[in-house]
Amino acid sequence: MDKPVALVTGAARRVGASIARTLAQAGYRLVLHYRSSAAAVEALADELSKSTEVTLVQADLNDPEAPGRLIAHAVQAFGQLDALVNNASSFYPTPLGEISLAQFDDLMISNARAPLFLAQAAAPALRSAQGAIVNIVDIYAERPLARYLPYCMAKAALVALTYGLARELGPEVRVNAVAPGNILWSENMEKAETPAMVVERTALQRGGEPADIARAVSFLLREPYITGHVLRVDGGRWLNI
Predict the structure, then answer these.
(1) Can you give the residue ranges of every domain in the chain?
(2) What fold is seen in the domain 5-240?
(3) How far apart are CA 6 and CA 64, in angstroms?
(4) Is 202 helix (H, G, I), strand (E, B) or coil?
(5) How far apart are CA 240 and CA 102, in angstroms?
(6) Is the pLDDT of residue 184 over 90?
(7) Whether residue 163 lies in the annotated active site
(8) d(C-alpha 105, C-alpha 114), whole Å
(9) Which of 28, 34, 140, 151 is catalytic?
(10) What is the mean pLDDT of the chain?
(11) Mean pLDDT, rounded, for 46-72
(12) Sign, Cα dihedral of 229, 230, 235, 239
């Protein structure tokens, strides 16, 4: 049989790149989406093409036509689609009283609307392949983080989407989510919680790494009897929110 095919959104750097590397090691052919980090994703593709087939697709997920175009590109490139990983995300502080409509729309589109329409466009191919979707949500979807309310709302919507898609697409397609905790991969998260706060508030007394999320994604893609589940990968941070 052909090697399975996975589409990873926001794959150029950080968590997305780690997911791509882990799936390449697991034997997937890859469709790597990026918005503006062309140099980073091209370097990643060069690295991964030594062990698997890789194709790149550029799109701004705020474009309503982008989800359909991404899925069409994947199916045209490889003739199948076995996995969709909705990783792309906007993330930045929006203090109450200063939230703009543009910020709200941007956060909702990247974190909730785009994953919905990507899943809808991918559904026929995923059903044919008996495939799976993994959404990257957040532990703060359940208990919102101060100064990040629209972001947390959007991730809560993505959690709801995960549950809804698991029912809508079953039994052919499994749909799960990974909820990261303190994966200190962006300047914004550093500002939200300092490393000292992470040690104090996390049961394992340390932040995580992108590879922790990538391994969880790989696990959920391959386990045949898990669907409609949100897996927290947070070192116990959720216990002290």
Answers:
(1) 5-240
(2) Rossmann fold (3.40.50)
(3) 21
(4) coil
(5) 32
(6) no
(7) no
(8) 11
(9) 151
(10) 94
(11) 98
(12) negative
